[in-house]
């Protein structure tokens, strides 16, 4: 196994409160795939570029992946400059637009064509005859789309998708190649979402405090794993008055994880029919978008909202609200944008990303990194699809992760 070019995110020359985290779960997965050889693998990745992702990429280099065969596109709202610098120092190929931002164009419309053109240019220049396996490691389905449009019929391609929104994009586009859906892992949907919801709730409360409205009424639109966990944390951890509705479900109560939470929310009248929520928008001081698609139009923002409404996204990208309307006078990706006294937090991007190297304690997100890592290593080793051993590796990683959480004093689901 090649141990050269190994990145050590915990040893980087930068000040960070989590810099000493050892990423032992990722190390455990590496040991499980000790015989994996990624020396003739081409990895095309679209990811948040933060310290936990750096640790994951490091594990691939330890398995023999050549940094020049590691092609990475970051997203402007979740890219840390120090992480990008470290990846480039290791000779990874990082897309030049990873940290670029146009406030007047929505993220998807801006990012998708640039990624497609970059992938095409890179692949045309490559001698793919020396590559045994082409693996797409994705967050949002964008890289699957780009690779599929250029190399979709190549039998060497396999994909790994991290998010529910990416899964939906892949299914909508009828992507042809074999793939692992980490997005559907019960561990990710249950365990990671708990911590992301808690982080989101904490940051929402900070935004409310800055607006000087501590008794705010909150409406959460979208009851996927992130939306419902955010609503629960706002209600249970912070005692906020919360209402929830989902545009995709007539009976949103059935989308909660636990019967106890379901009964508690029903007893307190937390659930709203979506139509009812849309006709009472002006009653809410804070509206949280977590649906994965646009929940409010520009006209609704101008005509239907509370005069000092605060809009916050907990969804990927900037599609929940008419972000470009708010960003006309703002030029940085993490600005709180004010229009007619109404505020769009974080330029419409998810409040869980603010540009830090660690947005959350690395242990809380490490299991997801380990799931992605295991899927990539499994695909690089077993070319005919998912191996029987992957489930065992994942279950062992989950058990170790739970033990580490307990040792660190974290409460989980």
Describe the fold and architecture.
The chain is an alpha/beta fold and 413 residues long. Helices cover 42% and strands 15% of the residues. The protein has 14 helices and twelve strands. The protein has helices spanning 24-32, 51-62, 81-89, 107-125, 142-151, 164-173, 186-211, 225-236, 259-267, 274-278, 298-304, 323-326, 362-381, 389-408; strands at residues 41-49, 70-79, 93-94, 133-138, 157-161, 178-181, 217-221, 241-245, 286-289, 310-313, 337-339, 342-344. Strands 3-2-1-4-5-6 form a six-stranded parallel sheet, sandwiched between helices. Strands 8-7-9-10-12-11 form a six-stranded mixed sheet. Helix 2 (51-62) runs parallel beside helix 13, helix 4 crosses helix 5 and helix 13 (362-381) packs antiparallel against helix 14 (389-408). The radius of gyration is 21 Å and the shape is globular.
Percent helix, as a range, is: 40-55%
Trace the largest sheet across and list its strands: 3-2-1-4-5-6
Mean pLDDT, nearest integer?
Answer: 89
Q: Ends: how far apart?
A: 37 Å
Largest sheet: 6 strands, parallel
What share of the residues does DSSP label as strand, in percent?
5-15%
Radius of gyration: 21 Å
User: What class do helices, strands and sheet pairing give?
Assistant: alpha/beta
Taken in chain order, the helices and strands follow as: HEHEHEHEHEHEHEHEHHEHEHEEHH
User: How many β strands by DSSP?
Assistant: 12
Low-confidence runs (pLDDT<50, min 5 residues)? 1-5, 9-15
What is the overall shape?
globular
Number of helices: 14
């Amino acid at each position: 196994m090649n141990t050269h070019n190994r990145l050590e995110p915990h040893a980087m020359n930068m000040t960070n409160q989590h810099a000493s985290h050892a990423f032992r779960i990722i190390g455990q997965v590496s040991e499980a795939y000790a015989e994996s050889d990624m020396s003739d693998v081409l990895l095309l990745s679209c990811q948040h570029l933060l310290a936990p992702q750096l640790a994951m990429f490091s594990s691939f280099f330890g398995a023999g992946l050549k940094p020049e065969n590691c092609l990475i596109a970051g997203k402007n709202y979740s890219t840390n400059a120090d992480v990008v610098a470290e990846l480039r120092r290791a000779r990874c190929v990082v897309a030049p637009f990873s940290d670029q931002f146009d406030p007047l164009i929505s993220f998807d419309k801006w990012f998708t064509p640039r990624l497609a053109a970059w992938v095409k240019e890179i692949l045309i220049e490559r001698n793919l005859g020396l590559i045994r396996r082409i693996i797409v490691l994705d967050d949002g389905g964008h890289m699957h789309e780009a690779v599929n449009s250029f190399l979709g019929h190549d039998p060497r391609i396999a994909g790994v998708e991290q998010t529910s929104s990416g899964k939906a994009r892949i299914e909508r586009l009828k992507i042809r190649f074999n793939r692992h859906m980490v997005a559907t892992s019960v561990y990710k949907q249950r365990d990671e979402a708990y911590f992301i919801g808690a982080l989101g709730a904490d940051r929402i409360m900070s935004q409310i405090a800055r607006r000087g409205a501590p008794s705010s009424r909150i409406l959460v639109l979208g009851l996927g794993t992130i939306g419902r966990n955010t609503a629960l944390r706002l209600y249970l951890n912070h005692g906020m008055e919360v209402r929830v509705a989902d545009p995709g479900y007539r009976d949103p109560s059935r989308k909660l994880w636990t019967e106890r939470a379901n009964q508690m929310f029903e007893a307190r009248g937390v659930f709203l029919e979506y139509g009812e929520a849309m006709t009472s928008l002006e009653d809410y001081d804070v509206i949280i978008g977590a649906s994965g698609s646009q929940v409010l139009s520009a006209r609704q923002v101008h005509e239907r909202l509370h005069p000092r409404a605060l809009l916050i996204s907990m969804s990927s990208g900037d599609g929940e609200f008419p972000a470009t309307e708010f960003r006309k006078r703002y030029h940085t990706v993490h600005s709180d944008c004010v229009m007619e006294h109404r505020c769009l937090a974080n330029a419409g991007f998810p409040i869980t990303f603010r540009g830090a190297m660690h947005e959350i304690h690395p242990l809380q997100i490490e299991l997801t990194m380990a799931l992605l890592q295991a899927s990539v290593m499994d695909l690089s080793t077993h070319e005919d699809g998912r191996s029987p051993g992957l489930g065992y590796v994942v279950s062992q990683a989950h058990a170790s992760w739970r033990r580490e959480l307990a040792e660190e004093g974290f409460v989980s689901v």
